[in-house]
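Reviewer 2 asked us to include a model.

Predict the structure of this chain.
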Amino acid sequence: MDKIAALREILNKDPNNSFARYGIAMELAGQNLPDEALKEFDTLLRMDPNYTAGYFMAAQTLADQGRKPEAMERLKAGIGCAGRVGNNHALNEMQSMLDDLNR
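Predicted model (structure tokens):
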């Protein structure tokens, strides 16, 4: 069974499992299926708006597709999330990426 299928099985048992949904999104991004990955990231962040890594990796996926304005908006939302949950490492990473995209 491939990773996506295994993670989808977890979601079938626990539809609110953020880690499994994030894993699916990352696998899809790694398989160069950005639109499918972004749908999973969107679902993840709708269900779990404090899943900070979801914002960063969704922004990375968007930036890789040349969708700079959308990536910047996702980073801004992620920076807000990181501030809310006190994740300074993620906040600094996203701010650095946002600064790079602003150049």
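DSSP finds six helices and no strands in the chain. The chain has one domain: 3-102. We have added this to the supplementary material.
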